[in-house]
């Protein structure tokens, strides 16, 4: 068994990467911050993916390509292995990115003025995409009860009217890292099915669910869920290949599938690239061991941050994730305004995190920390934060 080195520090500057080379634009000229924001990892993309891409590059022609049997079989085998989800080939389609997929679904299934429901605090494109496309976003905020995020079904049913056409679900949840229990997803499906609301389930963090939890693809929890949903997945977060657009959709319901996939086909938006197909096949064929080791390292990073803060900065608390390499930091005990909190992290500590209010007003008092990096970098960042707080 090969041992992968996640402690290795890799210089990513000069590769046109958003996380490092985009700092200056995103943080008002502050290009020397420690970047702990954009949701990709600083770990090397696994060697079996790199080798597969190199091998394909040995052939000197990069002409038109198509999604072959191996591509579909790799996805189907992986979904069965990870979630015991037995899928049909016809359910699956390449899409040009999950945020783009959300935009395409909004265009396909709704009209300007229709309402789209989101559950903040949540990944900000859920709000931005429908809003910029002329849809009305309505909010079903998560409840934070006894330190645990839960869906507020009573509030959801109270806001639904005839104009509500879609709900965008983060499963697992970003930024909270919540792996939703099956019962919650079943209830959500019941409500949405009863009101004719299509659920778009973003499951890009699913593969990084921690071993003690179980991810339930939304479409698997009930017949109602399968009949009212579109699921988006990708190997991009898990295997650190976000720059290779490798997302795909799964639609079990034939009526929804025909409408959406016909929409995609009309503009060849379902046409993937050589490198997307190559990387996906390699990730899902050879990736199990690497994923297990990477996930173990990330979990230890969670523990490291949690223990450090408890010992040195007890005013900041970790909302312990159940999936992903993103950590939601509860900074409310610092009793700072949001602008003061951001200033503390950026100007005093020299750190680039995501402002919690990016995910909605419910994120006030929070910051999102990306721990998908060598532990030495996290230690450096936390030491700097400790010094800044004094």
From TrEMBL:
Record domain Aminotransferase class I/classII large: where: 33-385
Top EC group: lyase
Cofactor needs: pyridoxal 5'-phosphate
An annotated Gene Ontology molecular function: lyase activity
Enzyme Commission number, as recorded: 4.4.1.13
Keywords: Lyase, Pyridoxal phosphate
Entry's family note: Belongs to the class-II pyridoxal-phosphate-dependent aminotransferase family. MalY/PatB cystathionine beta-lyase subfamily.
Name under which the protein is recorded: cysteine-S-conjugate beta-lyase
């Amino acid at each position: 068994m090969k041992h992968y080195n996640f402690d290795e520090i890799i210089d990513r500057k000069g590769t046109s990467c958003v996380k490092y080379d985009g700092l200056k634009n995103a943080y008002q000229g502050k290009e020397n911050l420690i970047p702990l924001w954009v949701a990709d990892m600083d770990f090397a993309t696994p060697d079996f993916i790199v080798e597969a891409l190199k091998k394909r590059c040995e052939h000197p022609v990069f002409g038109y390509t198509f999604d072959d049997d191996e591509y579909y079989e790799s996805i189907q085998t992986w979904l069965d292995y990870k979630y015991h989800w037995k899928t049909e080939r016809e359910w699956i389609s390449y899409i040009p990115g999950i945020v783009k997929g959300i935009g395409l679904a909004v265009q396909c299934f709704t009209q300007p003025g229709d309402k789209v429901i989101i559950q903040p605090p949540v990944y900000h494109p859920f709000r931005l995409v429908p809003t910029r496309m002329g849809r009305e976003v309505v909010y079903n905020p998560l409840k934070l009860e006894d330190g645990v995020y839960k869906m507020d079904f009573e509030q959801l049913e109270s806001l639904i009217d005839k104009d509500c056409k879609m709900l965008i679900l983060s499963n697992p949840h970003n930024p909270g890292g919540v792996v939703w229990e099956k019962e919650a997803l079943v209830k959500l499906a019941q409500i949405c099915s009863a009101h004719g609301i299509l659920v778009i389930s973003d499951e890009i963090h699913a593969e990084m669910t921690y071993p003690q939890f179980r991810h339930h693809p939304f479409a698997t929890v009930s017949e109602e869920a399968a009949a009212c949903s579109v699921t988006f997945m990708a190997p991009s977060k898990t295997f650190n290949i976000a720059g290779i657009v490798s997302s795909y959709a799964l639609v079990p319901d034939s009526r929804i599938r025909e409408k959406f996939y016909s929409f995609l086909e009309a503009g060849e938006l379902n046409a993937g690239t050589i490198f997307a197909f190559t990387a996906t096949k390699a990730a899902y064929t050879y990736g199990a061991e690497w994923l297990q080791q990477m996930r173990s390292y990330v979990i230890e990073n969670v523990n490291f941050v949690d223990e450090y803060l408890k010992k040195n900065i007890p005013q900041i608390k970790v909302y312990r994730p159940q999936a992903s390499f993103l950590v939601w930091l509860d900074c409310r005990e610092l009793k700072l305004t949001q602008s003061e909190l951001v200033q503390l992290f950026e100007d005093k500590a020299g750190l680039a995190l995501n402002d919690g209010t990016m995910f909605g007003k419910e994120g006030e008092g929070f910051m999102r920390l990306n721990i998908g990096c060598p532990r030495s970098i996290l230690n450096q960042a936390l030491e700097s934060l400790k010094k800044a707080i004094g």
